Amino acid sequence: MTDLLPTVDTDLAGSLWAELGATGRVASVYRDRRPERGVVPDRLRALLAELDTIHDTGTVLSACVQLATAVPLLAETAAESTALRQTVSGEAITALAATDTGPGSELTGMETVVEIGPDRVVVTGTKRWITNAVGGDWLLVLARHRPGPHFTNFTWVLVPATAPGVMVEAVQTDLFRGAGVGHVRLDAVTLPATAVLGRAGRGLPLFARHIAVERLAGGYWAAAVCHRALGGLRRWLGDRGELWRRDVVRDRFARALVAARQLDALAAMLGPRIAGQHDQASAALLKAAAGSTVEQVLGECAHLQGAAGFAPNGLQRLRAESALFGVAGGATEVVLTGVADHADRLLAEFATAEPAPIGERDS
């Protein structure tokens, strides 16, 4: 079963994005082909599932971040910008540079700063483990404009990757080939005041709003990864006759299949709510489920395949890369705190055919 990860072309992410943009498939993900109106859940789900069957994890990651987060954020804050037009058309790649030198889930502790003047801004700091940093054309940089952890102390800035003072270093890892993962150093990068997206102080509210859709995309993609891994393993086991007929093998496979189908059903149920209302509770629920389910399913698949999983582009590599579902966009442990914060509302939904109103008080 060595076909779980297709052959990797290091330039594939850029050429894939260019193709998706030129053929209108980027725009087609959004309502009325307008990114500011948000994603159409079924279209996003179908495109991510298609990409996952054809491309490696890094290439899909590159596209996923732009489809779910970078493009919608640009559309909301810079609708007339060259960056948005070029990214949607596939002419450019835009990176979301939020993670700082500290823990990724602790954004309020970031050290990257932006000095905002009447006619210019100056950005200084370091962003680490940024998808699309290498080969990217634009950087959506989250920075603080004043000290302290208050949520109004942060601002988005649109930075051209070619601006003086921008330095990008590729991350040294064999994983996520094609994702352009890198560290970004911003050394007194000076830009016009129009580089501020939205308005000063809206950084974290905008991040929270758009990370919800990124978590939805992650749920869709995680379900697709589980489906691909289980399908490949089923064929591999079937080719070995007696192995598939062993009760212990069938039991472990079935448990993984049940978990994968549960994740798929949860993503399908919550998709319209997250896409349409950016519901944080639903997004946290799906994010937590995706991280734990991928870990369970890929762990079982790797165990059942045994030593064969260590073949080039085999299951063990997919398992290692799929750990991103429990880290990117918020570690599972952190996201579970958000689930607990909304426990009463989420519990109330058990008794109704539809999710409870967002305005219902959580305690």
Give an overview of the whole structure.
The chain is built from eleven helices and eight strands. The protein is an alpha+beta fold and 363 residues long. It has three domains: 12-93, no CATH class; 96-200, Butyryl-CoA Dehydrogenase, subunit A, domain 2; 204-351, Up-down Bundle (Butyryl-CoA Dehydrogenase, subunit A, domain 3). The protein has a four-stranded mixed sheet with strand order 1-4-5-8, covered by helices on one side. Strands 2-3-7-6 form a four-stranded antiparallel sheet, with no helix packed on it. A hairpin with a 3-residue loop joins strand 2 and strand 3. Helix 6 runs antiparallel to helix 7 (247-277), helix 7 (247-277) packs antiparallel against helix 8 and helix 8 packs antiparallel against helix 9 (315-321). The protein is globular, with a radius of gyration of 21 Å. The termini are far apart. Residues 1-10 have low confidence and may be disordered. Keywords: FAD, Flavoprotein, Oxidoreductase. It comes from Salinispora arenicola (strain CNS-205). One of its GO terms (molecular function) is acyl-CoA dehydrogenase activity. It holds the Pfam family Acyl-CoA_dh_M.
